[in-house]
Structure formats: structure tokens, C-alpha cells
Amino acid sequence: MTVDARIAHEAAQWLVRRQAGECDDGALARWRAADPRHEAAWQRAEQVLRTLGRAQGPHGALGAQALRRAGGAGRRAATRLLVALIVAGPAGWAAWRLAPWAGGSASLRTATGERRAITLPDGGHLLLDTASAADIAYGGETRRIVLHQGAIDVRTAPDAAGRPFLVQTPQGTARALGTHFTVRIDERASPPATRVAVAEGAVELRPLHGGGAVRVDAGQQARTTAAAAGPAMPRDPLAGGWTEGVLYAEKMPLGDFIAELARYRSGLLRCDPAVAALPVSGAFQLRDTDAALAALAASLPVRVERRTRWWVSIGPR
Amino acid sequence: MLPASPLTPTTDVAALYGDHHSWLLGWLRRKLGGADHAADLAHDTFVRVLSAQARQRELALREPRAYLSTIARNLLISHAQRQALERAWLEAVAQLPIPLAPSPEQRLIVLEALHQIDALLDGLPPRVREAFLLAQLDGLNYAQIADRLDVTDRTIKRYMAQAFAQCIQLMP
């Protein structure tokens, strides 16, 4: 059904009068009763108010801020990025090279399900995992990556100026003594922790509030809270699968598995506690989380219930 | 399933689907790189074909891949816009101290509403859009907005009516 432009405008003016506190309720009622098309337009006007109502409230101003950033310039940037994707089309990774004029600093953020490869100003490489945020700050003294959220995989390059390479998180700092490692912030842990796993070379992990630093060598991992770092242990060989676009699981509890998968998927993905302990094993493509869910439903006594495309829950069959 | 009788548009689309769905899915996967919405977007592309005018469907049958990829490209662009808005929203929420941050459910409900609002405001002049956001989401009254944008009260009412009228027309 479409609404006549003139009638839509009349309905809009009633909304404006109401908002301005100048509405004569009797006159509005008479206008609505005068013509069924008026009433139909008014129904839509109320629908518009309900939609707005869901975005209003304590977070309304934040919503406005998001719409401002994503509309206009942000929208053009998104379209440009997409055009770049269409032209470049790398296998699984949207490649970004920092513009040389960016002066060695940049803010990077990935949306849910998005992963991105970045070439650093010194020629090193950074992979940004799903729903992650990092700032790159290369200064005269240090090469610093500030990880705010999510996970990164770093391959450092030798620096002509000999500046140290640091990854800083809310829980501490990892200083690269070698070449290839991943850093991940685990916000679900209590207290929140940062995990570092080293593939090549070594990393020194130092908690935010002093405490002793821990040296993590190739083939090892360690975690730190803001207060203290734990000992280095053998690296979980399955944990780095995301850099290849794969989630590996070996007898992983379904609840943990779903929490992990949810990081790569827009909207909500929930697991019923009744099935959260079921063990999951396999290799799952992160680019197709629907296929991973279908595989779960086929191999475990669970049911995938889709309330909407953005709201999926896993429960007993 | 869709009823299939000879010479109906749905038969055409069913044939189109059979011949080109896996090609389209591959095309979308390549374009999307790491994201996982290729199957949804392929599905949405065929839904668009189904709801297209008869004349356009003829075009689809004559040049199927060019036609499908044109529709899919438009859907890809709105997908990128959706991601841009999601990113901006999460960034905005991330500024809040944890006790004030919305729950995941609240976040999703607001995000969905923002997507809808974004679509309803599409194409409005920037000042009209800005006045509307200030009134409806930032919670300013008309006098405050007139002051901020340095225009008269009457102009604000005109902006607001223009934005509301478009919302009423575009509301699905």
C-alpha cells in the first residue's frame, strides 16, 4: 500500500503539531475520521513513532551519533570500501594498506563477521579479527598498537630505527622480542584478561599494574589480568584457527563454542544452558556461520531456532 | 513451495534460480570476502526478482547474470551500509561505562530500529536529517534546534514535517 504524498504531508503536520505542543486533539480526530486514507496514513505515522521509540530513551543520543557517522560521509566510505572489495577481491580478507600520509597512526575497527588484513607502516602485517578495535600509533620512540577489543595477529617487521614494538590492552602490554604472535582480549573472563600466543620469536607480557613480566616463547601462550600475569604454557594449537578463517574445536563445550561463533555473527546467538555442556568437535568455516549451525543441528541433539535472521537460539531438540 | 504452472513469473524465476543460484552465491562470496551473509543476499536477490515488474523480469531472462549481479550489487551496498551503521553504533556504545551499557538484547533492538530509521531518512537534505535526529533521538525541543541550526522556528517545523512525511511514505 502506498500513501498519497499530500495526505502523508498532512499526517506529518499533525505529528509536528503534537510534538510542538500545539495539537487540537478534537481537530485531529475529525481529520482522521474524515477519510479512510487519512486514518491509514495516521496508522503509519504511529508506526513511525513506535520505530523511533525503540531507539529513544537513555541511548537515543548515541543512536543519533551512530546515524550521523554512518550516514553521509560514513556511507560514502562504506561504499568506497565495498568498491575496493569488488576490485581487489582477495580470498577471505579485505586488504588495507595504510596510506603513507596517515602519519603512522590510524584507528581500525571491524564489524561483526568482518576480518581485515592491514599492512603496517614499517611493512609488518596485522590481521584484525571479528568485532575488534585497534589504534595504530607509530611514534619516534615506539611502534604501538592499542587493542581495545577483540583480537589481532601480528607479524612484526624489523625497524630501521630500532623502535620497540608494543601491543597494549586494558590488562597489560605485550612487547615483541620476535616476529609472529596473536593477542586477544577476553571480556567474558572474570576479571577480563588478555591472552598472548606466540608462533615465532618471543613476547614479554607485562600486566597493567606493575607485577612481574612473563616471557612467552614460540609455541607458548600466557594470559594476564590487569593485576598479574600467569605462567607461560604450551600453546593451544587450535586457538589460532581464526587467522585461517576456521574455528577448530576438540570436545569444546557447546556453550563455549556458540559464544565463540557468536563473535563472527551479526545479531544474537544464544545457547540454552540445558545443552551447553555437549561436546563439539570439528573444523568450521567462520565465513559461513549458518553452515556451522546446520552442522551442529545435524550432529548433536539440538535444534536451531530462528526468531529472526538476527536472533538465533540453540536449544534441546 | 511456490505454485508452478506454465508461463507464470514464478516458473521463470524458479528456472532462473535453478540455473544461476550457485553462480550467484559464488559471485557474492568472492565479493564479500570474509563475511558470512552470501546465502542471505543471494536469497534476497531472488526475492527482488520475484517482486520485480514483468518488463524487468523479461530482462532478467534475456541477460540473467548481468541482471542478477546488478541487483546483488545494490544489496551488497546496503549490506556495507548496514555494517557501517553497526560499527558506528558499537563504537558509540563502547564509550559508555559498563554499568550504563545496554544489554546485548537492548543493543540489538536499538540497532534494528536505527537501521529502519536510516532507511526512512535516506535521501533527505543533510540539514533536515540533522534537525530530525536532534529532535527525535537527542531529545532537543524545536526552539533549541532552531537556536543550534540558526534558523527560525517555522523552518524547523517545515524540516520536521518534510522528514515525517517521507517516513510515513517509506514505512514498510
Shape of chain B: extended
From the N-terminal CA to the C-terminal CA of chain A, the straight-line distance is 40 Å
Radius of gyration of chain B: 21 Å
* Largest pleated sheet of chain B: none
* Stretches with pLDDT under 50, minimum 5 residues of chain A: 81-104
Q: What would you report as the Rg of chain A, rounded to the nearest angstrom?
A: 25 Å
Description:
- The complex is a heterodimer of chains A (317) and B (172).
- Chain A has 317 residues and is α+β, with helices and mostly antiparallel strands.
- Chain A folds into three domains: 5-56, no CATH class; 108-234, Jelly Rolls, CATH 2.60.120.1440; 245-316, 3-Layer(bab) Sandwich (Phage tail protein beta-alpha-beta fold), CATH 3.55.50.30.
- Chain A is built from seven helices and 20 strands.
- Chain A has an eight-stranded mixed sheet with strand order 1-3-4-7-10-11-14-15, with no helix packed on it.
- In chain A, a hairpin with a 4-residue loop joins strand 5 (133-138) and strand 6 (143-149).
- In chain A, helix 1 (5-19) packs across helix 3 (36-55) and helix 2 (25-34) packs across helix 3 (36-55).
- The longest helix of chain A is centred in the N-terminal third of the chain and has 20 residues, at 36-55.
- The model of chain A is unreliable at 81-104 (pLDDT under 50).
- Chain B is an all-alpha fold.
- Chain B has a domain at 1-95.
- Chain B is built from eight helices and no strands.
- Chain B has helices at 9-32, 38-50, 54-62, 64-94, 104-120, 126-136, 142-149, 153-170.
- In chain B, helix 1 (9-32) crosses helix 3 (54-62).
- The longest helix of chain B is centred in the middle third of the chain and has 31 residues, at 64-94.
- Chain B is extended and about 60 Å long.
Name a few traits of the molecule.
heterodimer; A: 317 residues; alpha+beta; Jelly Rolls; Phage tail protein beta-alpha-beta fold; 3 domains; 34% strand; B: 172 residues; mainly alpha; disordered N terminus
